[in-house]
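Entry 14. Ran structure prediction on the chain below.
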Amino acid sequence: MSALEVIVQLKSLATIERKIANEKFFKMGTGQYSEYDQFIGVRASQTRTLAKQYFKAITFTEIDKLIKHPIHEIRHCALIILVNKYQANNKEAVFNYYLNNLDSVNNWDLVDTTAPHIIGHYIFNHHDKLHLLTDLAYSKNLWKRRVAIIATLTFIKRSLFTPTLTISKILFDDQEDLIQKAVGWMLREIYKKDSNLCKAFIQENYAQLPRTTLRYAIEHMHENERHHYLKGSF
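Output, structure tokens:
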């Protein structure tokens, strides 16, 4: 399976309606996070189906041509192919390849649909690699910082919360909306597993928590309790 064959298949699925919808959904204005991205108009569900169909037959050499492509949906397909390859076999090779190509994981959906399944899962099973999450959290690159926090979703699902709380503290001062929301989202996931732990963490760090992070973190509280937490009255 060649990269060109995958690209032809993706382009055959593209519609102008979906292209317009994608360009509206992802912020593409001057200075916004998708300013330099390009869309052709393929649904994410179609991309996942195509990736699942072809992941066994495509080599890393051909994936190179997809993952470095300027078109968003083509990069997304390459990354979903990697998730499928990782889950099928050869986890170390896929993990290293993904890590070496993080510059192509350059939008929030690309991060969110792949980082927990590759970075998070691999590091969960290789705790000697935990330092990589810290390194990514200190990156100047927005998307690498998002990878750091979103990857910890794998730990949360297995009721191991320390990595998320550690990375969250590193990112408290982050001014990017997409990071503040991501941290809040992960804290909300912890709340679903251990509400008391999450509440204690919010109370302890209330003064440092960005407002956006706080709002995301407390979404599942009862309304009255949520109002108290917004006011900082615990």
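The CA atoms of residues 28 and 35 lie 4 Å apart. Will compare against last week's run tomorrow.
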